[in-house]
Design a protein that fits this description.
The complex is a heterodimer of chains A (82) and B (399). By secondary structure, chain A is of the alpha+beta class. Chain A has a single domain (8-68), classed as Peptidase S8 propeptide/proteinase inhibitor I9 (Alpha-Beta Plaits), CATH 3.30.70.80. Chain A is built from two helices and five strands, in the order βαββαββ. Chain A has a four-stranded antiparallel sheet with strand order 2-3-1-4. In chain A, a hairpin with a 4-residue loop joins strand 2 and strand 3 (44-49). Chain A is elongated, with a radius of gyration of 15 Å. The N and C termini of chain A lie far apart (43 Å). The mean pLDDT of chain A is 93. Chain B is α/β, with parallel strands linked by helices and 399 residues long. Helix content of chain B is 24%, strand content 18%. Chain B has nine helices and 15 strands. In chain B, helix 4 (174-183) links the parallel strand 7 and strand 8. The radius of gyration of chain B is 20 Å and the shape is globular. Classes of the chains: A alpha+beta (82), B alpha/beta (399). The A-B interface holds A 10, 12-14, 17, 36-37, 39, 41-44, 46, 64-65, 67, 69-77, 79-82 and B 143, 172-174, 177, 208, 212-217, 219-221, 223-224, 227-228, 237-240, 249-251, 254-255, 258-259, 272, 286, 308, 344-346, 348-349. Strand 5 of chain A pairs antiparallel with strand 9 (213-215) of chain B.
């Protein structure tokens, strides 16, 4: 896909177990996901996408859930509570 | 508070009823009609673990209802329903004693570290147990591990880093601390002893950077790696704060269901966002708020819930509930050299405690997946009068 700006957010996609995993990967690519990891063991695809593409990805046949990746941050190592 | 042990295997008089995963509601309706007893969800009630309660309690994340001593004809009727494949009751069995619920307290609280063992080992019955996690695989998904630490050097540890540009070596400390709590050696270079499953096959997946930062992509890749390595228990001392009423992640829920189906139980930290003293509550974080991921709260050496330990979300459905508690205040464990050892607090510490003890239950019972989770959660020591909304079924206990 031609795109003038780089994909900006990490996205995690749950794949419907009843659908062929590799086929869903290709559908997501076609819908604008730059796939970075395919994890068939857990039925999940990780990738990068424009925020504007999230609705389109959620509509892909075989994508049972599409979420923006959450960020996790531990407190500093010197903290008493971690 | 925490009661004495009794012979394992004795019957409590209560009954466990397993309902179908995909239709709890139909199962609950049939159960209440057949047993003629009210059954409440474990979420949002004050005394789910009260042994004197006249109502039943349903633990949705396990799909299991606990009934208070039903009369024999009701048990028989439940058995008939369970034998009928078309009915939404899958199994009925008597509850067995792992920790007695009526005897007076014999050992603590309060618990304290002594020269040979940490307070958490006393509180969870790790000292007398003969189990060490042999044959069980435990994965710690965190900031990595100090492989050269005296207490880990020479031990076979399976490692992988999912942090771009960083090796599995722990430049933070958090991961080494958590790995020590879950799987630390029986004979540390410097006492006291602090690890639960000293002979478990330790797997360390680095999913958080040396700066303690990570994202779902790396964490999920770590879970996938742990499943590929057939780990029985996964410990995740990480979480993102949530608002009350926020939905759980369907992506993580699907992953956790697949893990359970493969025989792998995931424990995750409930989170440290609560400010109880200040009256500012916080619910279980992501991803521990998923129904199929087991959320761990933190208690201290006086058997009180930690001020920071997140609580169940009464508006979050069955998902956002605390499932069990572990020692999580002033927990002594390994830290990267040259510090070697540190004592810190958090649901991050309580989680590997529960995961390590789960490995002992896996070794002791041969159970895996949902059945293992049920055994671990069901054998916790009651922390009444603390609310199940804060501590789930109670304090984890070694088999």
């Amino acid at each position: 896909m031609a795109s003038s700006s780089r994909p900006s957010v990490e996205v995690v996609v749950a794949v419907d177990a009843a659908q062929p995993f590799d086929v869903v990967v290709e559908r997501l690519r076609a819908a604008g996901l730059e796939v970075t990891q395919t994890l068939p063991v857990v039925g999940t695809i990780v990738g990068l996408a424009q925020t504007s593409a999230l609705d389109r990805l959620a509509g892909v046949d075989g994508a049972s859930a599409v979420e923006r990746s959450a960020e996790y941050q531990l407190p500093p190592p010197e903290s008493e509570v971690q | 508070m925490v009661q004495a042990r009794e012979t394992a295997g004795a019957l409590t008089g209560r009954y466990l009823v397993l309902l179908p995963e995909d239709d709890h509601e139909a199962g609950m309706n049939l159960l209440q009609e057949t047993a003629q007893v009210e059954v409440l969800s474990s979420v949002g009630i004050e005394a789910a673990s009260d042994p004197e309660a006249s109502h039943g309690v349903f633990y949705e994340s396990l799909g299991v209802a606990v009934l208070p001593a039903p009369p024999p004809e009701r048990i028989e009727a439940l058995g008939i329903a369970a034998a009928d494949a078309s009915q939404p009751i899958l199994a009925v069995e008597p509850e067995r004693v792992l920790v007695a619920i009526s005897a007076p307290a014999v050992v603590g609280p309060p618990w304290q570290d002594d020269a040979s063992e940490t307070w958490g080992m006393h509180a969870t019955g790790l000292h007398p147990t003969g189990f060490d996690g042999s044959g069980v695989r435990v994965a710690i998904l965190d900031t990595g591990i100090d492989l050269g630490h005296a207490d880990f050097a020479g031990r076979p540890i399976v490692t992988e880093s999912f942090v771009p540009g960083e090796a599995v070596d722990d430049g933070n400390g958090h991961g080494t601390h958590c790995a020590g709590i879950a799987c630390g050696t029986r004979t540390p270079a410097t006492e006291p002893r602090y690890g639960a499953a000293s002979a478990a096959a330790l797997h360390v997946g680095k999913v958080l950077s040396n700066r303690g930062r990570g994202g779902d992509g790396g964490i999920i890749a770590g879970i996938s790696w742990a499943l590929e390595h057939r780990c029985d228990v996964i410990s995740m001392s990480l979480g993102a704060p949530q608002q009350f009423g926020a939905p759980h992640s369907p992506v993580y829920e699907q992953i956790a269901q697949r893990a359970l189906a493969r025989g792998t139980v995931i424990f995750a930290a409930a989170g440290n966002d609560n400010q109880r003293a200040a009256g500012i509550p916080a619910p279980v974080g992501r991803p521990a708020n998923c129904p199929s991921i087991f959320a761990v709260a933190a208690i201290d050496g006086r058997a009180e819930v930690a001020d920071f330990s997140n609580e169940s979300d009464p508006n979050g459905g069955t998902a956002a509930q605390v499932d069990i508690a572990g020692p999580g205040v002033d927990v002594h464990s390994s830290w990267p050299r040259p510090t070697d050892y540190r004592s810190i607090s958090g649901t991050s510490m309580a989680t590997p405690f529960v995961a390590g003890i789960a490995a002992l239950h896996a070794q002791a019972t041969g159970l895996r997946g949902s059945a293992l989770a049920r055994a671990v959660i069901g054998s916790a020591a009651s922390l009444t009068p603390l609310s199940p909304a804060d501590v789930g079924s109670g304090l984890v206990q070694a088999p």
